[in-house]
Please model this.
Amino acid sequence: MTKSARKRVVVLISGRGSNMASLIAAAIDPAFPAEIVGVISNRADARGLEIAATHSIPTKVVSARDYDGRAAHDAAIHEALTQMKAEIVCLAGYMRLLTPDFVQKWMGRMINIHPALLPNFRGLDTHARALATGVRVHGCTVHFVTPEMDDGPIIAQAAVPVLIGDSEETLGQRVLRMEHRLYPLSLRLLAEGRVRMSGGVAVFSNVADETGETAIVSPGERRRR
Ligand code: GRF
Model:
Protein backbone atom coordinates (compact mmCIF):
# COMPACT_ATOMS: atom_id res chain seq x y z
CA MET A 1 0.00 0.00 0.00
CA THR A 2 1.38 3.41 -0.92
CA LYS A 3 2.24 5.62 2.01
CA SER A 4 -0.37 8.23 1.07
CA ALA A 5 -3.14 5.60 0.94
CA ARG A 6 -2.57 4.63 4.55
CA LYS A 7 -4.88 6.28 7.06
CA ARG A 8 -3.24 8.61 9.54
CA VAL A 9 -3.93 7.35 13.07
CA VAL A 10 -3.30 9.10 16.38
CA VAL A 11 -3.50 7.06 19.59
CA LEU A 12 -4.69 8.60 22.87
CA ILE A 13 -3.24 7.03 26.01
CA SER A 14 -2.96 7.65 29.74
CA GLY A 15 -0.63 4.91 30.91
CA ARG A 16 1.09 1.65 30.05
CA GLY A 17 0.38 1.76 26.32
CA SER A 18 0.45 -1.95 25.52
CA ASN A 19 -2.51 -1.65 23.15
CA MET A 20 -0.87 1.35 21.52
CA ALA A 21 2.23 -0.82 21.10
CA SER A 22 0.15 -3.52 19.39
CA LEU A 23 -1.12 -0.94 16.89
CA ILE A 24 2.40 0.35 16.29
CA ALA A 25 3.63 -3.22 15.75
CA ALA A 26 0.86 -3.95 13.23
CA ALA A 27 1.51 -0.70 11.37
CA ILE A 28 5.21 -1.49 10.93
CA ASP A 29 4.05 -3.71 8.06
CA PRO A 30 3.86 -1.34 5.06
CA ALA A 31 0.85 -3.33 3.84
CA PHE A 32 -1.13 -2.39 6.94
CA PRO A 33 -3.73 0.20 5.87
CA ALA A 34 -2.95 2.66 8.68
CA GLU A 35 0.13 4.38 10.05
CA ILE A 36 0.53 5.64 13.59
CA VAL A 37 1.49 9.29 13.12
CA GLY A 38 1.25 10.44 16.72
CA VAL A 39 0.53 9.59 20.32
CA ILE A 40 -1.17 11.99 22.71
CA SER A 41 -1.23 11.44 26.46
CA ASN A 42 -3.00 13.40 29.16
CA ARG A 43 -0.26 12.32 31.57
CA ALA A 44 3.41 13.16 31.26
CA ASP A 45 4.36 10.00 33.17
CA ALA A 46 2.52 7.60 30.83
CA ARG A 47 4.88 4.73 30.12
CA GLY A 48 3.47 4.44 26.61
CA LEU A 49 5.13 7.73 25.68
CA GLU A 50 8.56 6.09 25.96
CA ILE A 51 7.48 3.18 23.79
CA ALA A 52 6.22 5.58 21.11
CA ALA A 53 9.46 7.55 21.28
CA THR A 54 11.55 4.41 20.73
CA HIS A 55 9.62 3.99 17.47
CA SER A 56 10.29 7.64 16.58
CA ILE A 57 6.58 8.41 16.70
CA PRO A 58 5.82 12.05 17.63
CA THR A 59 4.26 12.37 21.08
CA LYS A 60 2.46 15.18 22.83
CA VAL A 61 1.31 15.60 26.41
CA VAL A 62 -1.94 17.52 26.81
CA SER A 63 -2.54 17.67 30.55
CA ALA A 64 -5.94 18.58 31.95
CA ARG A 65 -4.15 20.62 34.62
CA ASP A 66 -3.15 23.16 32.01
CA TYR A 67 -6.73 23.88 30.98
CA ASP A 68 -9.75 25.35 32.61
CA GLY A 69 -12.31 22.57 32.42
CA ARG A 70 -12.99 19.54 30.25
CA ALA A 71 -14.19 21.48 27.21
CA ALA A 72 -10.95 23.48 27.00
CA HIS A 73 -8.86 20.34 27.54
CA ASP A 74 -10.68 18.45 24.81
CA ALA A 75 -10.40 21.47 22.50
CA ALA A 76 -6.62 21.35 22.97
CA ILE A 77 -6.60 17.64 22.13
CA HIS A 78 -8.69 18.33 19.05
CA GLU A 79 -6.20 21.01 18.04
CA ALA A 80 -3.29 18.56 18.49
CA LEU A 81 -5.12 15.91 16.44
CA THR A 82 -5.72 18.45 13.70
CA GLN A 83 -2.06 19.46 13.70
CA MET A 84 -1.08 15.80 13.37
CA LYS A 85 -3.57 15.51 10.49
CA ALA A 86 -5.30 12.60 12.18
CA GLU A 87 -7.88 10.74 10.16
CA ILE A 88 -8.63 8.09 12.78
CA VAL A 89 -8.32 8.31 16.57
CA CYS A 90 -7.71 5.19 18.67
CA LEU A 91 -8.34 5.42 22.40
CA ALA A 92 -6.02 2.95 24.12
CA GLY A 93 -6.35 3.16 27.87
CA TYR A 94 -7.26 6.85 27.73
CA MET A 95 -8.67 7.35 31.19
CA ARG A 96 -10.67 10.56 30.87
CA LEU A 97 -14.26 10.99 29.81
CA LEU A 98 -14.51 12.92 26.57
CA THR A 99 -16.99 15.76 26.14
CA PRO A 100 -19.95 15.17 23.78
CA ASP A 101 -18.77 18.07 21.65
CA PHE A 102 -15.36 16.46 21.10
CA VAL A 103 -16.88 13.03 20.49
CA GLN A 104 -19.25 14.52 17.93
CA LYS A 105 -16.32 15.90 15.95
CA TRP A 106 -14.73 12.45 15.65
CA MET A 107 -17.81 10.26 15.55
CA GLY A 108 -17.34 7.35 13.18
CA ARG A 109 -13.58 8.00 13.12
CA MET A 110 -12.78 7.31 16.78
CA ILE A 111 -12.63 3.82 18.33
CA ASN A 112 -11.93 2.45 21.80
CA ILE A 113 -10.91 -0.86 23.29
CA HIS A 114 -12.68 -2.01 26.43
CA PRO A 115 -11.61 -4.99 28.57
CA ALA A 116 -14.98 -6.74 28.74
CA LEU A 117 -17.64 -8.14 26.47
CA LEU A 118 -19.89 -5.11 26.16
CA PRO A 119 -22.62 -4.37 27.02
CA ASN A 120 -21.50 -6.23 30.15
CA PHE A 121 -19.18 -4.50 32.59
CA ARG A 122 -18.95 -0.96 31.31
CA GLY A 123 -16.56 1.24 33.29
CA LEU A 124 -13.67 0.20 35.49
CA ASP A 125 -12.51 -2.97 37.30
CA THR A 126 -14.01 -5.21 34.65
CA HIS A 127 -12.01 -8.32 35.52
CA ALA A 128 -12.84 -8.16 39.23
CA ARG A 129 -16.50 -7.65 38.37
CA ALA A 130 -16.47 -10.55 35.91
CA LEU A 131 -15.03 -12.82 38.61
CA ALA A 132 -17.48 -11.56 41.22
CA THR A 133 -20.41 -12.11 38.86
CA GLY A 134 -19.27 -15.62 38.02
CA VAL A 135 -19.46 -15.35 34.23
CA ARG A 136 -17.65 -18.24 32.54
CA VAL A 137 -16.82 -16.23 29.42
CA HIS A 138 -15.16 -12.83 29.44
CA GLY A 139 -13.23 -10.83 26.86
CA CYS A 140 -12.76 -7.51 25.16
CA THR A 141 -14.56 -5.23 22.74
CA VAL A 142 -13.56 -2.63 20.16
CA HIS A 143 -16.32 -0.12 19.49
CA PHE A 144 -16.97 3.26 17.93
CA VAL A 145 -16.89 6.02 20.52
CA THR A 146 -20.17 7.79 21.19
CA PRO A 147 -20.93 10.34 23.93
CA GLU A 148 -22.15 7.66 26.35
CA MET A 149 -19.22 5.82 27.97
CA ASP A 150 -18.43 2.30 26.63
CA ASP A 151 -21.67 2.34 24.67
CA GLY A 152 -20.90 2.83 20.96
CA PRO A 153 -21.54 0.40 18.10
CA ILE A 154 -19.48 -2.77 18.45
CA ILE A 155 -16.91 -3.51 15.76
CA ALA A 156 -15.31 -6.66 17.12
CA GLN A 157 -15.13 -8.78 20.23
CA ALA A 158 -12.88 -11.53 21.48
CA ALA A 159 -13.90 -14.01 24.14
CA VAL A 160 -11.76 -15.89 26.61
CA PRO A 161 -12.78 -18.51 29.15
CA VAL A 162 -12.84 -17.69 32.83
CA LEU A 163 -10.89 -20.53 34.38
CA ILE A 164 -11.44 -22.04 37.79
CA GLY A 165 -9.00 -20.39 40.17
CA ASP A 166 -8.49 -17.31 38.00
CA SER A 167 -7.40 -14.17 39.78
CA GLU A 168 -8.05 -10.66 38.52
CA GLU A 169 -4.47 -10.74 37.25
CA THR A 170 -4.52 -14.07 35.40
CA LEU A 171 -7.87 -13.27 33.81
CA GLY A 172 -6.71 -9.76 32.94
CA GLN A 173 -3.59 -11.11 31.24
CA ARG A 174 -5.63 -13.55 29.19
CA VAL A 175 -7.94 -10.75 28.07
CA LEU A 176 -5.03 -8.40 27.36
CA ARG A 177 -3.42 -10.93 25.00
CA MET A 178 -6.66 -10.91 23.04
CA GLU A 179 -6.86 -7.11 23.12
CA HIS A 180 -3.52 -6.99 21.36
CA ARG A 181 -4.92 -9.11 18.53
CA LEU A 182 -8.35 -7.52 18.38
CA TYR A 183 -7.35 -3.86 18.20
CA PRO A 184 -5.13 -4.10 15.10
CA LEU A 185 -7.75 -6.28 13.40
CA SER A 186 -10.44 -3.68 14.12
CA LEU A 187 -8.30 -0.75 13.03
CA ARG A 188 -7.61 -2.59 9.79
CA LEU A 189 -11.35 -2.93 9.10
CA LEU A 190 -11.95 0.76 9.77
CA ALA A 191 -8.92 1.99 7.83
CA GLU A 192 -9.94 -0.11 4.83
CA GLY A 193 -13.47 1.27 4.98
CA ARG A 194 -14.86 -2.20 5.62
CA VAL A 195 -16.68 -1.06 8.74
CA ARG A 196 -18.39 2.26 9.25
CA MET A 197 -20.81 3.73 11.71
CA SER A 198 -24.22 4.39 10.27
CA GLY A 199 -27.55 4.92 11.98
CA GLY A 200 -26.03 4.12 15.35
CA VAL A 201 -24.70 0.71 14.36
CA ALA A 202 -21.55 -0.71 12.81
CA VAL A 203 -22.12 -1.60 9.17
CA PHE A 204 -19.74 -4.05 7.52
CA SER A 205 -18.85 -4.62 3.92
CA ASN A 206 -16.49 -7.13 2.36
CA VAL A 207 -15.78 -8.76 5.68
CA ALA A 208 -15.26 -12.50 5.73
CA ASP A 209 -16.90 -13.47 8.99
CA GLU A 210 -16.05 -17.12 8.55
CA THR A 211 -12.35 -16.32 8.74
CA GLY A 212 -12.87 -14.75 12.12
CA GLU A 213 -12.26 -11.22 10.92
CA THR A 214 -15.00 -9.71 13.03
CA ALA A 215 -15.03 -12.11 15.93
CA ILE A 216 -12.55 -14.30 17.66
CA VAL A 217 -14.05 -16.75 20.07
CA SER A 218 -11.71 -18.33 22.59
CA PRO A 219 -9.01 -18.36 19.94
CA GLY A 220 -6.34 -20.90 20.59
CA GLU A 221 -6.53 -20.50 24.34
CA ARG A 222 -5.58 -23.85 25.83
CA ARG A 223 -5.03 -24.74 29.40
CA ARG A 224 -1.45 -25.75 29.93
CA ARG A 225 -0.76 -28.00 32.89
C1 GRF B 1 -6.71 -1.98 28.49
O1 GRF B 1 -7.15 -3.05 29.26
C2 GRF B 1 -7.83 -1.40 27.70
O2 GRF B 1 -8.79 -2.34 27.31
C3 GRF B 1 -8.45 -0.41 28.66
O3 GRF B 1 -7.37 0.13 29.37
C4 GRF B 1 -6.29 -0.80 29.36
C5 GRF B 1 -5.12 -0.08 28.82
O4 GRF B 1 -3.95 -0.86 28.82
N1 GRF B 1 -9.25 0.57 27.96
P1 GRF B 1 -2.72 -0.40 27.95
O5 GRF B 1 -2.36 1.01 28.38
O6 GRF B 1 -3.12 -0.45 26.52
O7 GRF B 1 -1.63 -1.37 28.27
Helices lie at 18-27, 47-54, 70-83, 100-106, 126-133, 168-191.
